[in-house]
Design goal:
The complex is a heterodimer of chains A (91) and B (224). Chain A is built from 4 helices and no strands. Chain A is mainly alpha-helical and 91 residues long. Chain A has one domain (2-88). In chain A, helix 1 runs antiparallel to helix 2 (48-63). Chain A is elongated. Chain B is built from 3 helices and 5 strands. A 5-stranded antiparallel β-sheet of chain B has the order 3-2-1-4-5. Chains A and B meet through helix 1 and helix 4 of A and helix 3 of B.
Chain lengths: 91, 224
């Protein structure tokens, strides 16, 4: 039983680290995309405040997006794989 | 230095390869001839080649281990241990040792009427250290020449390659967004320092030059 607890604790730590890294990475990619979108469009002008506001709005939209929520799969997939393995390897 | 680098890289590659070769599942097509149980002493460093089955057994220095004896198509002997991995490493989550032993017992056959089976296992048989691969599953197959496609290994290695690729992408993104701007700032600051130093040098040269010119007036040279 101690083995199960150990697996759960270290697995949770590992998955949390992966979740954190994926969130930071995904948000960073989204911010870069928004920046490039603004910079590549001459019609948007070059007011730095408007640019910041545009990026902020874009990132708020991203927080609600499906892609942001899909990062939770980092927790779901390994857990499901372990359950499947436990089942398959013992029947 | 070049040799040191290559030795280091080669050692690293060997360790990584060895780790996967030991841990990932492999299939042997064999004929089971017998199963047995034997008391094993587990009190030296070769302990790492045996499983850690349950909570009570961790303090023991010897215990009974089940084995499966088999021969392959060439007649070479293959001996497997049959132990629970439980929740421990490697993550096979195997708890059905007794069931597997029963299946193996059931699939025993003679060379006159061979019943070939595919044994999934991990680990190494090292005769000098008395280590045995751990059998995970046994499945009857048609004959000694069947091909088993290692789907599990393909999936695991592809997945690991994907993770490595993602880590690389993350690192590149981090460098581009967090480290490079800082380096640019430092470079800019350094350029400013450089420019100021140049100016100061020019100024100093100017003073020195004027002083020399003033000295020159004593020798009757015209001031410039």
């Amino acid at each position: 039983m101690i083995g199960l607890i150990r697996l759960a604790v270290f697995g949770f730590i590992g998955m949390t680290a992966a979740y954190f890294l994926m969130s930071v990475y995904s948000r960073s990619v989204e911010r870069e995309r928004l920046e490039k979108e603004w910079d590549g469009d001459p019609a948007k002008g070059d007011d730095p405040e408007a640019r910041d506001a545009y990026i902020e709005t874009g990132l708020q939209g991203y927080e609600k997006s499906l892609r942001r929520k899909l990062i939770w799969l980092v927790y779901v997939i390994p857990t499901v794989i372990v359950l499947i393995l436990v089942y398959l390897n013992d029947t | 230095m070049k040799y040191a680098k290559w030795t280091f890289l080669a050692t690293l590659a060997l360790i990584v390869f060895g780790f996967f070769h030991y841990t990932l599942p492999q299939h042997d097509i064999v004929r089971i001839v017998n199963t047995y149980q034997e008391r094993q002493d587990l009190d030296d460093w070769t302990r790492i080649f045996w499983a850690t089955p349950d909570d009570q057994a961790t303090g023991l220095i010897n215990r009974d281990v089940q084995f499966i004896q088999a021969v392959d198509a060439d007649g070479d002997p293959r001996v497997y241990r049959n132990e629970d991995t439980g929740w421990n490493w490697p993550p096979y989550f195997k708890f059905d040792t007794a069931n597997l032993q029963t299946q193996a017992e059931d699939l025993k056959s003679t060379s006159a009427a061979p019943q070939w089976v595919s044994i999934t296992h991990y680990g190494w048989r090292i005769v000098y250290l008395s280590t045995f691969p751990n059998a995970i599953a046994v499945k009857p197959v048609a004959g000694p020449d069947v091909t088993v496609i290692p789907w599990v290994n393909i999936i695991i290695l592809t997945f690991l390659a994907l993770i490595l690729f993602m880590i690389r992408r993350m690192w590149l993104q981090f460098r581009e967004r967090m480290i490079d701007p800082v380096i640019e700032d430092v470079e800019e600051a350094w350029d400013n320092v450089d420019a100021q130093a140049d100016q100061a040098a020019a100024k100093a040269r100017g003073v020195w030059g004027r002083f020399k010119a003033w000295l020159g007036t004593w020798q009757g040279k015209p001031r410039r």
